[in-house]
Design a protein that fits this description.
Layout: E1 5-7, E2 19-21, E3 30-38, E4 41-49, E5 52-57, E6 62-63, E7 68-74, E8 80-87, E9 96-100, E10 104-107, E11 116-124, E12 129-136, E13 138-139
Parallel strand pairs: 6-13
Antiparallel strand pairs: 1-2, 3-4, 5-7, 7-10, 8-9, 8-11, 11-12
């Protein structure tokens, strides 16, 4: 897993023997075990790493007005009950929420207003709730609705 894995050597003396994985990949799923020996004592811990994946079809960046399918999947073993997608959830009236039984969201004609932060939230039969955030990029025209722009002769026009 090198070079994606690091130990924080400076914190080992304080009892922190954390492992950092950056970036996490789907194949990193599984049970991790740590053993630390201090004098004659041996301490161990087990941590299970689960992964949630957000995928786009077609991949990011998305072209304005081309069909977009966003999927959200997790390595959690229980039955998926509901998937909710939240768009710009902290921005007031522009926020939107979509919920369904599957992990997918279709946007037929993505617009520039669909760009930004999307969070998928997966709810499982064992009451576990898992979420991930994805920053969607949309390529398109974000200009005036009227395509005619007037500029004074001798000045610049954008």
């Amino acid at each position: 897993m090198k070079p994606r894995v690091t130990l924080q050597d400076s914190t080992l003396r304080n009892g922190n023997f954390s492992l950092r994985i950056d970036p996490v990949l789907s194949e990193d799923i599984g049970l991790y075990e740590a053993w630390v020996k201090y004098n004659t004592e041996v301490h161990s811990c087990h941590v299970e790493l689960g992964v949630i994946t957000v995928t786009l079809s077609p991949p990011n960046p998305v072209i304005e007005n081309e069909l977009l399918l966003m999927s959200c999947n997790s390595s959690h073993r229980a039955n998926l009950v509901e998937t909710c997608w939240f768009h710009k959830e902290h921005l007031g009236p522009t926020s939107r929420t979509f919920c369904s039984m599957s992990g997918a969201l279709s946007i037929l004609y993505p617009a520039m207003s669909d760009a930004g932060s999307w969070r998928c939230q997966l709810r499982y039969s064992d009451k576990e709730i898992i979420s991930a955030t994805y920053n969607l990029q949309v390529l398109g025209f974000d200009g005036p609705t009227n395509p005619v722009v007037y500029a004074a002769a001798g000045s610049a026009a954008d």
